[in-house]
Fold this sequence. Notes:
This protein is mostly beta strands and about 525 residues long. It has strands at about 10-20, 25-35, 50-55, 65-70, 90-95, 110, 115-120, 125-130, 140-145, 155-165, 165-170, 200, 210-215, 225-230, 240-245, 250-255, 265-270, 290-295, 305-310, 310-315, 325-330, 335-340, 350-355, 355-360, 370-375, 380-385, 395-400, 400-405, 415-420, 425-430, 445-450, 450-455, 465-470, 475-480, 490-495, 495-500, 510-515, 520-525. Helices cover about 0% and strands about 40% of the residues.
Amino acid sequence: MRARNVRLAGLLVFLSIAMMLGTPAAHAAVNITVTDVTAPGTIGVEARKAVFGINMTGSGTLQGLQVQFADQDGDGDFDLAGLSDLETSPVGVAVYRDTGTDEDALDDGDTLVSSSFENTGGTVDIVVSSGIPASAEGSYTYFLAVQTSDSIGDGDDFTVTIPEPILGCAFEYQPSNLLDSCDGGTSGAITANIAPTAELISAPMSPDGNIVWKFSENVVGVDAQNVVVREGLLGGTNLPATVEYDSEERTATINPTDPLEAGQTYRTIVNPGNVPTEDRVKDAQGNEVGSIEETFTLPQFGFTPGVVRGSAWYLSNDFDGDHDVTAFAYGGSGDVRLAGDWDGDGVTTVGVRRSNRWYLSDDLTGSQTIPAFAYGNSTDVPVVGDWDGDGTWTPGVIRGNTWYLSNDFDGDHDIAPFRYGNSTDRFVVGDWDDDDNGSRGRMTPGVVRGNRWYLSDGFTGAQTVPAFTYGASSDRKLVGDWDGDGKSTPAVIRGNVWYLNNDFDGTHNIAPFALGASSDFAVAGDWDKSIQP
């Protein structure tokens, strides 16, 4: 702590006190013996490090403090000087709140909170104008800084009497010979008797997510009528939900009974205006949480990522790097993995191709539900997509650079073969334009050559989307409708980090995230039907 000017001082003692009610009637005494006075009116600089901590309990606001002094002669009048800011001119009596960098010790960062004092025969009444911050439950340390006249000498004793209740000494610094009494040894909780507040700390990121509120202090009466979620920005009724209160974390968690809707805006409210006073969330003293509401919009996820490791599938419904669908096994480690909506219900499911046999499932349980069929040759590159825009994904194969596409599972190709790209390209499929001219939802071909993407809106073999650069040539390439707008856009996976783009501008505008391992096979789909029709 920085040295302070003590040439006017006979004694400078810092006492740390905690928050209390006004000026309680009960008092407790701490006896202090003055020693090592080198000359009348001075004490060695080490005395300025003496801090005596006392924890006190109560509620309300610290409005004042009463301290009583008695010297060896018993007259009790140390001729205290006028109040001044002890940061620059340490004279008189002042109270500071411990807000500085040197915890539990008075320093330049502490806040002066007293405005005046009155000394009558050694009884000092101190006015504290801003003692307690505008916050709820907490412990606050205060320093009582006292400077007497130069009449103090070696051997003069005095007693500082501080209002009850005292819970014990919180800390004591050297030189200990300034403080010869410290009863107790425990500290206690301090509660400010002000209304608690609530803060929304978590909004859901997926349709089955929860809403979490955190309170500034422990509250009572939390239930599904006073901590609610409603659809839309105005009006509406409470959505069915369970609400759980955690007293240790001081949180209320809303778990909606039915999944929320992707892209929809919701309001969550603590103590809605229509809740009767007796049923509102409040603290133990009866102070109500003020009615507060926050809005959130459930992200409009479209396709989300997944990985396949051997025969195990790990699928995620968002971009947080966790798999949300229970892992299941489908196919063998040597199969080509496929993902598509085989029955047009809006949910992407899984499939594999083994040699030229296709095994598809229309659920995520690991069971084959669609009869196996043969299509193409074992050396062909398999692709899947909704070639006619009817909502159902069907197979296709690429032989060299010639595309053969089928609109069903009968083993025939229904679209005239066409050439697109080179045999060494990485082949991709998507709905690049999401147009409304009769081909909405229809998927068409694309290729990636190095890190250049060449996309087509038709089956003629002509490139119709301007080429663009995205990712590095060594990245794994993937496409998906990442924001649910109906348009397929690119993604690259580098190691196990995914970079997604909602456009064709060559930048990633979704925060990168890690999922799986670099050796996993990457897939993408709408596993939970978050894209609404």
